[in-house]
Amino acid sequence: MSESYSTNAGSLDPQAGFTPTPSVSQAAHDLRVAAEGKIKDLASQAGMLTEKARESASQFRDITTEKAAHFREIAQEQWTDTRARAREVHSSAEEYVRQNPTKCVLGALGVGFLIGLITRR
What's the gap between Cα 81 and its chain centre? Predict the structure, then answer.
């Protein structure tokens, strides 16, 4: 056993200099190649994930655009209905005032008097 120590010790002698054996340089080369392969795989996976994200964003944009158009259509219908109802209420109120002017004037005076009392306090 001491002979194997001396044999190994002689190869690492500082006077002789350290020269890497072919197995160490081969292992370093293999690690470098494996790392490059992993980097290429990761870059490929990142590219695929980026493409999937773009597709998902495109689908989300299409869906939200469709929903926004649907909501816009509903809002437009509601606005049209509300305007029509407001016109009906306005015309019926105007007709009521024309048919009952005394009631309306006295009611307006009463409401004005009450508002005046409330704001005075």
Answer: 34
